[in-house]
Amino acid sequence: MQGVRLVNLPKILDERGNLSFMEEKNHFPFEIKRTYWIYDVPGGEVRGGHSYISNQEFIIALSGSFDVVLSDGKESKTFSLNRSYYGLLVPNNVWRHMENFSTNSLAFVVASTDFNEDDYVRDYNVFLKTKNN
Ligand code: TYD
């Protein structure tokens, strides 16, 4: 799927506890405008179900696990995130939802734009039309 990729982050092993980090432009190709996180997700809940016109995101499971399901309108792919030392790059114009959140999971998201509801496409049929044009 174009532009989608799993990115390994540095992992500094230490008997005092491990450390990982990420740097804009080094590990994902945009400057950070915003971060947000999703937590306390009740079992069985689904988040997302939209695409963005211009926002790009890099998603990390800082704790626990969840699945990110992506679709470009032709194919669909599921990425299981369950380690804090890699992240998933999700370009704009990709439909996504997140599911199978484990207890106490923490989804950390870095985003390339400020929050803007007008940047959302929340209707899958509208999304498909944008892909066909
Ligand atoms: P939304 O992106 O729809 O959540 P999800 O895709 O995880 O289901 O956001 C849920 C609500 O939170 C919506 O009313 C917009 C608001 N929101 C902000 O105000 N700022 C933000 O940075 C984000 C991501 C959401």
Automatic annotation (TrEMBL):
- Which InterPro entries does the UniProt record give? QdtA_cupin_dom (IPR008894), RmlC-like_jellyroll (IPR014710), RmlC_Cupin_sf (IPR011051)
- Every copy of the Sugar 3,4-ketoisomerase QdtA cupin domain together lies at 3-131
Give the top-rank taxon of the lineage listed in the UniProt record for this protein.
Bacteria
Output this protein's name: WxcM-like protein
The species this protein belongs to is: Solitalea canadensis (strain ATCC 29591 / DSM 3403 / JCM 21819 / LMG 8368 / NBRC 15130 / NCIMB 12057 / USAM 9D)
